[in-house]
Amino acid sequence: MRLLIMTALSLLCGCNHAVPLGTASGIVTLHGKPMTTGTITFTRTDGAATYISDIDASGSFRFEVAAGKGLPVGDYKVSISPYRPTKPSLEYVDPDMTERAYPNVPPRYQDPEKSGFTAKVEPGAQPDFRFDIP
To answer: Would you place residue 1 in the very low, low, confident or very high pLDDT band (cuts 50, 70, 90)?
Structure first.
């Protein structure tokens, strides 16, 4: 009986440990133009977690975690990497001979410790982030 009461009380107290989220989206530019492919990484300054989002053809990115849209509130170091082609399949794949150009992101911006980019994710909606690689 005592266990039943303790369980009921713990459920009623609303022990909700949901982490507050803030929107985390924006645009990445390279030499003044939208970066058309790649990834952007937000790494918590306390080292607790790292989140990665693709950069689309318009240079835009949007982070979404399992708990909802956005990222946990906090301070982040940011790095940006060019697209990396995936390993080839072991099965036959028709060759795609289309010439592709991948962004030439300087190594400095690919390292969250050296990029100089930071982000502060606040609770709820906030303006888009903008990261410009000269």
So the answer is: very low
